[in-house]
């Protein structure tokens, strides 16, 4: 199916589905005519509020880990969400745009990418009146990574996708997601789970969990790499652990 023959049909289907339960799948089908992808996970992001699940095509046997745990608290480590919260996001971004230097070595990567054979991820952010739709689109192992050409093509279609989504959510208003309490901030979660850490050590734990190396953390916090390594040793000693995987396990205790 070529883009020239498929796009008008899929676009017409998306327009007809505005205001119905078929809208998000129809918009995704239209986006697939622009650039192919397999996985899709759609959430609504609002400053100061919890992410709201809109749609996903995750297999049932993986939902408890990939969807439920992510919505519970693992989204705090999602590099795209971190970028959104920091207000540094572009309409279309690929994983390489946002992932820290050691992201592929993290347990988060193993759970949310490697275990489901996800090779690459592309984010489409669609601003609405008081929130932003976050389309997470995935390609699997054995498929090509998203290219800059894919990004350009989706950028060209972004205005159409935005107009469709604005019309749909205007006709189908949603209740506001729950407020994001202080207990759901990553630094607060770490402080609760890792008693006895200093504020600087909590900062470093946040960056470690998100996949930053000691060198990357040093640049972010304006410290020397040697100082960061000393902090890491102190963190591990205080928590009675010896690896970053053990640190991630402590974090997961808060989402099980």
TrEMBL record:
Keyword DNA-binding in annotation: yes
PROSITE patterns: HTH_LUXR_1, HTH_LUXR_2
SMART domains for this protein: HTH_LUXR
Keyword DNA-binding: yes
GO MF term list: DNA binding
Keywords assigned by UniProt, alphabetized: DNA-binding, Transcription, Transcription regulation
Positions of the HTH luxR-type domain: 190-255
Record GO biological process: regulation of DNA-templated transcription
Full protein name: Transcriptional regulator NarP
Species lineage: Bacteria, Pseudomonadati, Pseudomonadota, Alphaproteobacteria, Rhodobacterales
């Amino acid at each position: 199916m070529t883009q020239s023959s498929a796009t008008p049909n899929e676009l017409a289907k998306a327009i007809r589905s505005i205001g119905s339960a078929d809208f998000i799948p129809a918009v995704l089908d239209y986006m697939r005519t622009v650039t192919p992808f397999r996985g899709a996970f759609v959430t609504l992001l609002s400053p100061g509020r919890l992410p709201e699940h809109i749609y996903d095509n995750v297999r049932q046997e993986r939902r408890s880990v990939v969807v439920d745990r992510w919505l519970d608290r693992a989204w705090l480590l999602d590099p795209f969400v971190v970028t959104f919260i920091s207000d540094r996001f572009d309409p279309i971004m690929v994983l390489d745009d946002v992932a820290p230097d050691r992201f592929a070595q993290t347990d988060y990567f193993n759970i949310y990418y490697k275990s489901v054979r996800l090779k690459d991820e592309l984010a489409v952010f669609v601003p609405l009146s008081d929130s932003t739709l976050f389309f997470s689109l995935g390609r699997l192992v054995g498929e090509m990574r998203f290219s800059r050409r894919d990004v350009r093509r989706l950028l060209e279609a972004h205005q159409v996708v935005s107009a469709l989504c604005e019309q749909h959510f205007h006709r189908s208003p949603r209740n506001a997601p729950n407020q994001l309490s202080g207990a759901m901030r990553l630094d607060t979660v770490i402080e609760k789970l890792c008693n006895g850490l200093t504020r600087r050590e909590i900062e470093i734990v946040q960056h470690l969990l998100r996949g930053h190396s000691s060198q990357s953390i040093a640049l972010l916090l304006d410290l020397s790499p040697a100082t960061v390594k000393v902090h890491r040793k102190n963190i591990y000693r205080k928590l009675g652990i010896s690896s970053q995987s053990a640190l991630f396990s402590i974090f997961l205790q808060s989402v099980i």
